[in-house]
Write a structure and sequence with these properties.
globular, 13 helices, two-stranded parallel ribbon, alpha/beta, Rossmann fold, about 290 residues
């Protein structure tokens, strides 16, 4: 049996949909804090086993993982001061339940000292996984390309693509693509101990992304760099992100500016047999999904 945590989250949904398309619904167990969501109810109606799971409750996690051979343990979106302990709870529950292999979505260049969620959550979780005695695969994700279009309506209306980073280049990957690769790992006999870094086949800076937006959406868009110090306030005011979470990404912006994420690998192709979609293809998929 395959287990996917955080079933109502966007990455989990991409993984689950890929597994369902591959006909693996009968061997799929999903865990979520909210078993009564429309998505969870829809999965249950399709024959997927839906279990109440919460990283904050080790005993509940152990029950959720009973009978599971391979588990994708997706970190929560809680604040970084509690996420490591949550991950450790989930890892211990997996070991106690007899899970054979865990898959963990980590972050690009997880050893970075600048990036708060890598320093406090992802890298120590990776170390704990390696010391756990369990079979494992670590998937280090590039920045989600999806964060570039969270305010697409405002971007197209104003003609300004506003992000920090200046001329620095950064690696991206679409969340849906990363769902495909994670599902592929879950469905195959994967050797233990591998760490993959998943990116598009090239990196991009803000000006290049704005130019692609102009071409794909047929409207003039230019890039405007936002100072790192102003970025948390921008996210709070435009997206409603709590300031505590917004402030935690300052280090990520500093890492981009320092060139830490100007990195390309062929690992996604090695997993799936094809490259991840590039930025133009990603934006075209966003355009094609817009209401008429």
């Amino acid at each position: 049996m395959i287990f996917v945590s955080g079933a109502n989250g966007q990455l989990a949904r991409a993984v689950i949909n890929t597994l369902l398309e591959a006909g693996r619904g009968s061997s799929l167990i999903v865990g979520t804090r909210n078993v009564n969501s429309d998505f969870a109810r829809g999965l249950a109606a399709r024959g997927v086993t839906v279990r109440h799971a919460d990283y904050r409750d080790p005993a509940l996690m152990r029950q959720a993982l009973e009978g599971v051979e391979k588990a994708l343990l997706i970190p929560t979106y809680d604040t970084n001061d509690v996420r490591l302990q949550q991950n450790l709870n989930a890892l211990e529950a997996a070991r106690a339940a007899g899970v054979r292999h865990v898959v963990y979505p980590s972050f690009l260049n997880a050893e970075s000292k600048r990036v708060e969620h890598s320093r406090l959550v992802h890298y120590p979780t990776e170390q704990a996984i390696r010391a756990s005695g369990l079979g494992f695969t670590i998937l280090r994700h590039a920045l989600y390309a999806d964060v570039l279009i969270g305010d697409l309506q405002q971007t197209l209306a104003s003609g300004l693509f506003q992000r920090p980073g200046g001329k620095a280049r950064c690696a991206y990957a679409a969340r849906a693509d990363l769902g495909v690769s994670a599902a592929t790992i879950l469905m195959r006999e994967e050797p233990s101990g591998r760490t993959y870094t998943e990116t598009m086949d090239r990196t991009y800076n803000g000006e290049e992304i704005a130019a692609l937006m102009s071409e794909v959406f047929g409207r003039p868009v230019r890039y405007e760099s936002i100072p790192t110090a102003d970025w948390p306030r921008f996210m709070h005011e435009r997206w409603g992100l709590p300031m505590e979470l917004a402030n935690s990404v300052i280090g990520t912006t500093q890492a981009i500016e320092a060139g830490e994420f100007d990195l390309v690998t062929s690992d996604y192709r090695a997993i799936t047999g094809r490259p991840a979609r590039d930025m133009r293809q990603f934006l075209e998929s966003v355009r094609d999904a817009l209401p008429a």
